[in-house]
Amino acid sequence: MNRRPARRFGAWCAGLLLAGVGVVVGCRAAGTDGITPVPQLLAFLPWLLVPTGFALLCSLLARWWPGLVCGVAVLGLLAWYLDPYGRTPDPAGPPLDTFRVLTSNVEFGRGTPALVPRIRERRPDVVFVEECEYGCQATLEGDFATDYPYRQAVRAAGSHGSMILSRFPLRPTAGVRGTMGMPGAVADVHGHAVRLQLAHPMPPLPDQVGLWQRELGRLRTFAAADPRAPTVLAGDFNATQDHTAFRRILDTGQTDAARLAGADRAASWPARTASVFGAQIDHVLVSPDFTATDARFLRVAGTDHRALVVDVTLHQRR
Asked: Which residues are within 8 A (CB) of 170 and not within 5 positions of it... i.e. 6 or more apart?
């Protein structure tokens, strides 16, 4: 029996898979988000282990030894990049205050009815709500007029509206300019000033990768503007730790609170499959003044994002 056609087909399959995965991994190694479809695939980088494993199997069955060597190299790089990015130095000073942060993208306001009981259940001190349009804002202001008397919002329709709710007094700031609303404020946390900034850059759709990178760049500029100030930067970043534009924000000294709490690869989107397949694009980033514990991703009916709630502790900086 002539097995050459079958082996040739297996080698072709392995070669095509390794070429596709290799481009994505190569961009990750080179520190670039590349062009479509690379940014979209980078969001699911850990899942590229599946086609890489299949390529290895095809190479083995086809006895294509160069493909086997290449596959092992790609597999090793993928395994390396599964580790969380950046350092997590512990604050040197004593703890000053602990408070709870929740962020949720309610998808054009549709998740608002389900978010309300989540807020009552978890009792966060600061709430960041993305895609909170007029109806969403009216609901939250009406239901939490007493519990969250301080608010900062960008009032707009559809995905352009956003809101910050706080138990702490807020001093409004200019926020970060973007296609969708990204309000900001300075919170008075029992006498300690903490910068709050909601994040919601445009997603990296095929025709707007450049816009996505520019808006993430503006968030990086905000994070780097006052490195000595305690900062909480939270929301739907439409990016993971495998995107260069997001890692540049982390390079300013910000740390992902979910990582600090041991949930660095937990998926937040798409919510329907997040328990088995997805990407963590919703984040709470904190400056080196903070530690974080008990990060949880919560299902909120009506939206394609899971909410993230995390407890953060502000430390005195030395």
From this structure: 150, 151, 152, 164, 185, 186, 187, 188, 196
